[in-house]
Amino acid sequence: MGLKSKLRKLSKADTEELDEIIDELTDRELSKVFEEDEEESVSEPEEEPDPIIIREGENRTENVRKKKVRRKINPVPVLLILVMLLVALVACVLIFCRVSVISVYGLSNYTPEEILRECGIESGENLLFISGKRVEKNLISAFPYIEKIELRKNFPTGIRLMVTEGTIKYSIEKDGAFTYVSKYGKLLESGPAKYDGSILLKGGEIEKNDGYIKYKDEYIDNAFRAICDFLNEREGEMDAITEIDIRDVYNLSMIYDNRIRLVFGGTSDMRYKMNFGMNIIGGSGIGSDEFGTLDLSNSKDTNRAYFSPSTQDAVLNPVTVNINSKKDGNDWTSTFAGAGRIIDGVDQVQGEPTPSPDPEDIEAVEIGGRGDDIPDV
After folding, report:
1. What distance in Å separates the CA atoms of residue 201 and residue 243, rounded to the nearest whole number?
2. How many angstroms separate the CA atoms of 303 and 295, rounded?
3. Which pLDDT does position 100 carry in this prediction?
4. DSSP codes of every residue in 190-240
5. Which of the given ranges, 74-78, 274-278, 363-367, has the highest pLDDT on average?
6. What are 306-323's pLDDT values in tens digits?
């Protein structure tokens, strides 16, 4: 009886045992077994095979299987090929990716030739080793009006420099001279007069800090940065600001539209006070043709401001303002001479208007809300 005939009679358990035996045999031994089986099959007549019963859901190949001898793949040649491809790629980048073209965009105060001279990039330099931060530092230190540089690498040989130049936002007055500053506080240049369209910035001792404005007094410096951030966030709305006065750290103020002076008192809660004041100006609290002083020094604590009508000359040159400063916690309050009116906001905690005093010479005016920008306390 041949090997094939014998396999047909094996049960499933016997087949699995045979698979394990075949796994242990080598190719040569398997070949020898099959050759012997062929010789035996020639000499012996093949018996009629018994019928194989296939149960439902059972595959015939599970009863009679031939185990395939698997050969392991040697990983060494594959790894060598990958390493060779990587080395070739790096070699191509090092040899061919070298700067030959530099394009400059966004210039208005300088020429491309000036930028190329100071950027620190040499012709033929490899693109992989060019640092955008290094180029930006070189150009910002060399050119006052440059505030930001974005470097884009166009492989294999190109570089694009996207330049952002600052514009004059503030004119700082000191001893009859003016220093021009960008909206982010970068010192740009000096001039003999206030720059047309800029905000006049009065007071404070400044020092140069990597090309940016920095006040020696920490409280004034923090207040100035809060003012700058607020003006930048509401840039279109705040274009009517014409002057910021920080000569007195306890009596900071700024002028809106050359007709309303907003007085903040001390440096605490500057963002809240500015937002409170602009909501009053933008609402119905003050008429569009009125001149006067809006005292916001206690607006955070009392949820109200005091408006004192006056003339434009009094607003621009506040000689009629009578400051009686007294310290109240971390804040200062200011009392103005002359009749005026209380302007209420909406109470932060209860959500109802705060009651106003009712003296005979004060007119109470209520505005509709303080706006969504003022945080709850």
Report:
1. 6
2. 12
3. 92
4. EESSPPTTPEEEE---EEEETTEEEESSHHHHHHHHHHHHHHHHTTTGGGG
5. 274-278
6. 999 999 999 998 864 444
DSSP 286: S
pLDDT of residue 205: 87
In order of 68, 76, 78, 84, 374, the CA distances from 73 in angstroms are 15, 9, 10, 19, 70
369 half-sphere exposure, CB direction, 13 A CA radius: 5
pLDDT in tens, 53-111: 545 544 555 544 444 445 667 788 888 889 889 888 887 777 888 999 999 999 999 99
Q: What is the DSSP letter of 51?
A: P
Question: pLDDT for 117-165, tens place per residue?
Answer: 999 999 899 998 999 999 999 999 999 999 999 999 998 899 999 999 9
The token pair at 32 is 């020898």
Q: What is the DSSP letter of 144?
A: T
Q: Decide: 179 and 134 in contact? Cβ < 8 Å.
A: no
Alpha helices in 234-349 (DSSP H): 270-282, 299-302, 312-316
CA nearest 245: which of 145, 354, 321?
A: 321
Q: Is 38 exposed, middle or buried (0-12, 13-18, 19+ CB in 10 A)?
A: exposed
Helices 270-282 and 218-233, interaxial angle, to 10°?
A: 40
The DSSP output letter for 352 is S
* Count of beta carbons in the 10 Å neighbourhood of residue 113: 9
Q: In the block, which residue shows the tokens 């090092």?
A: 94
Give the list of residues 6+ apart from residue 45 with CB closer than 8 angstroms, or none: none
Inter-residue contact 43 to 89 (CB < 8 Å): no
Residue 62: phi and psi, rounded to 5, are -80, -20
Phi, psi of 345 (to 5 degrees): -105, -165
Dihedral of CA atoms 351, 356, 362, 364 in degrees, nearest 10, equals: 30
